Amino acid sequence: MRGRGVLLLLIGLLIGLAAGLYYSWVVNPVEYVDSAPSSLRQNFKDDYLALIASAYAHTGDLQRTRARLASLQLDDPASALSRLAQSRLAEGRPESEVLALAQLAAVLGQRPVPGLATGASPGTATPIAPTPSPTASPTATRTPTPMPTATPGAPYTLLDQEEVCDIRLGEAQMQVLALDAAGEGVPGVELFVIWDAGQDRFYTGLKPELGPGYADFTMLPGVTYTLQLSSGDRPVAGLMAPECFDDDGNSFPGSWRLIFQQPPQP
Amino acid sequence: MRSSSRLLIGLFIGLLLGVLYGWVIRPVEYIDTAPDTLREDYYSEYVLMAAEAYSADGDLDLARVRLAALGPRPPVNIVVSAIDYGLEHGYSQLDLETLNRLVVDLRAVPPSAEIDTP
Hints:
The structure holds two protein chains of two kinds. By secondary structure, chain A is α+β, with helices and mostly antiparallel strands. Among the domains of chain A are: 40-109, no CATH class; 157-261, Immunoglobulin-like (Sandwich). Helices cover 33% and strands 21% of the residues of chain A. Chain A is built from six helices and ten strands. Chain A has helices spanning 2-27, 42-59, 62-70, 77-91, 95-108, 114-118, and strands spanning 157-164, 172-179, 190-195, 198-203, 214-219, 225-229, 236-239, 243-245, 251-253, 255-261. In chain A, strand 3 (190-195) and strand 4 form a beta hairpin. Chain A is elongated. Chain B is mainly alpha-helical. Chain B has two domains: 1-32; 35-108, no CATH class. Chain B has five helices and no strands. Chain B has helices at 3-25, 40-57, 60-68, 75-88, 93-108. The longest helix of chain B is centred in the first third of the chain and has 23 residues, at 3-25. Chain B is elongated and about 75 Å long. Mean pLDDT of chain B is 86; it is low at 114-118. At the A-B interface, helix 1, helix 2 and helix 5 of A face helix 1, helix 2 and helix 5 of B.
């Protein structure tokens, strides 16, 4: 008789448990109506990130921008912005959006240009994480700060052009560094590259881990390219991947490193 | 104790445990939410960012696309709600003007084409 009583208790328990789970998971589940940006689906997170960058292009308020980025809880906002800029450029999204992403990535990841100084592979560079904001809450105050953009005025002139024989790059590259008159890298400089079968456009600052004024373009062996900065004085023609040799005498396609600088204002 | 009482006690305890497990220990997780579920302050911040971005790029259709992510309400109403929120929560005059500029332009210029929700 006692055993039957325990059995009934257990049966009741199981039925009750099932009913409770059904109610709490199906009939009346916990509703997340007050979600945070960090819980957004990935494509919405990307849109949110692009929106943060586009808003920054207007306000120039880095403190507020950092707070907004913190709400997304990204491990490395500068790299995320840079990746998004490149993917959106490839998707043909509005130029203003791509530029805004690149410029914010450059601002957050500003550092010297190790790749150009040492010839190290861009893939081995260590991104610098920006300082996280102390709060994730949106704020309604604003402290405008200057927006780093391509300096208007004197056109860029070719300061230096040299071959780079670095097998670690794994491909032939056209590495470009745009500097202002003070020698600081300038993000957002538009570059056109033209060859027999086509043309393309890219921008400095899309790889902030290599410096704000850095950009590179993959060259195909045997193809001759012409490079033109939208704000440059004249194009650089006849750029073809040079032939390099490794320690064993095997040839591989080399790269070009081109440094452009704005002359000092008179 | 009667058998039916034991069954009811078990049922009650099981129900409590089930609800406890489903609501507290392992609630339904929403990890892939949409912008229209954002908390009110983030929601308004989203609208403000859309307005700031519009001030930067002047692309009203793009602003409409961005606002469309916030739900099926007309974009003008979404921005007006954000202005109301901003007035209640001390947004700066500059922020309110930025939002207001977007409302004015949204009212003045009809959509140029059908806009897809991102």
